[in-house]
Amino acid sequence: MIYLRLFFEFFKIGLFAVGGGMATLPFLQRLGESTGWFDNQLITDMVAISESTPGPIGINMATYVGYNVAGFWGGFAATMGEVLPCVMLVILFSKFLDKLSGNKYLDYAFYGMRPAVTGLIAAAAVSIMQVSILNTELFKQTGSIADLADPKKIIFFVLIYLAIKKFKKHPVAYIAVSAVAGLVFAF
Amino acid sequence: MGFAQGPERMLRLKELFDIYLKFFKIGAVTFGGGYAMLPILRREIVEKEKWLSEEAVMDFYAISQSMPGIIAINVGSFIGYQRRKKLGAAAAALGVVSPCIIIITIIATCLSNFQDNVYVRHALSAVSVCVCALILDSIVAMWKKGVKDIFGMVVFAIMLVLMTFTETSPVLLVVLSAVCGIICKSLQERNKAKTEKGGNEK
Questions:
Q1: What pLDDT does B201 receive?
Q2: Is B20 domain-assigned?
Q3: How many independent structural domains does chain A possess?
């Protein structure tokens, strides 16, 4: 039953993804690898769409992945699966709020989890870049450096990153500019 | 509570529906979730509805960042819980996600129809490069916030390697890193306490 499976997989993600929408990225990437439901190409489309539509990024990504795996009800099951542990935890936490806020061991756990999650996202980013910027698959077949890296994409990556650092606009602005650049320069 | 009848019950249902609608609206106008939600929450919940004080909203916000789950859903559920307990929390969470489900489903349907179009492919191909830059930007921001010492750098490196070269589940890695954090920080604190004590004795 694909809907139950989606619900369960996203329940796990909702429970263990600590630190905002992007933190679900490594979980989604591993999910795609282990089930074969989707590839890294879909993940970059997913991030782009999630960043440029209203709503929390983590939820948008869950709906998008679920929809692509099993249609509307797939998106519904994935989203509900991700939301349920959040609501359960909040209800639990609301009862013990005074004890929890400023709890020493909760802080200590986050001392370990924050760098860990950053590392996990970095790993997901590396594997996404292998598809989006470098073409490692083709490189493995031909062994020629020209096939590995498309200079156009590398230059574009550096330019966009510098622009993000400099202008600090909303992500949707960079995504729109990129889409136009992709059309003009035939990426 | 389960035995409420007639007008009282209608009132409760209406209150839940109000919570749902309020968060539906907030979900529909928040671009980017989590952090982007705060100004809208302040305007809708604190200033307009006066459901909670600004301090309470900020507190929920802080707790939501340091617990598992999607930040925007956590904040919404906390506020909903304050209004109408468990059902209120559920109503708020459902409100935030409803617009997402609608909008994303529409976009995903359109996109899957145009995906093979050569122009759409050109545009998406450049957008995916941009997505990498955006992810890199959030990694740098998270690094600045979360990696404060050698311990953090070591954990970062170990996780990067384990995630890239093994099939380990990220669930396991997150749990392990939490345990590591508790043990290492406890030891650090104990050592600090010891040296301070030793210093005082001298």
A1: 52
A2: yes
A3: 1
The reported pLDDT for the residue numbered A149 is 77
Q: How far is B6 from chain A (nearest CA, A)?
A: 28
Query: Does residue A150 lie in a domain region?
Result: no
In the predicted model, what is the mean pLDDT of residues A81-85?
96
- Enter the pTM of the model: 0.88
Q: Is residue B168 part of a domain?
A: no
pLDDT tens across A144-180, in order? 777 777 888 999 999 999 999 999 888 888 989 999 9
Chain B residues 28-57 with CB within 8 Å of chain A: 28-35, 37
Q: Does residue B25 sit within a domain? A: yes
Residues of B (101-130) whose Cβ lies below 8 Å from A: 101, 103-105, 107-109, 111-112, 119, 122-130
What is the distance of C-alpha A93 from the center of its chain?
A: 26
Predicted pLDDT of residue B34: 64
Are the Cβ atoms of B142 and A117 closer than 8 angstroms?
yes
Residue that the structure tokens 């590396």 belong to: A126
Domain assignment of residue B72, given as a range: 1-114
Residues of chain B with pLDDT under 70: 1-5, 32-35, 199-202
* Per-residue exposure over A107-140, b if at least 16 CB sit within 10 Å of its own CB, e if not: ebbbbbbbbbbbbbbbbbbebbbebbbbbeeebe
Domain that holds residue A24: 2-106
Is residue A61 a part of any domain in this protein?
yes
Task: Give the tens place of pLDDT for each residue, B78-135.
Answer: 999 999 999 999 999 999 999 999 999 999 999 888 888 899 889 988 998 998 999 8
- A99: CB partners within 8 A, 6+ apart: none
| Total tally of structural domains belonging to chain B | 1
Q: Which B-chain residues 143-172 have CB contacts (< 8 A) with chain A?
A: 143, 145-147, 151-153, 155-160, 163-164, 167, 169-171
What contacts A112, CB < 8 A, 6 or more positions away? B155, B177, B178, B179, B180, B181, B182, B184, B185
Using CB atoms, pick whichever of B35, B63, B105 lies closest to residue A67.
Answer: B105
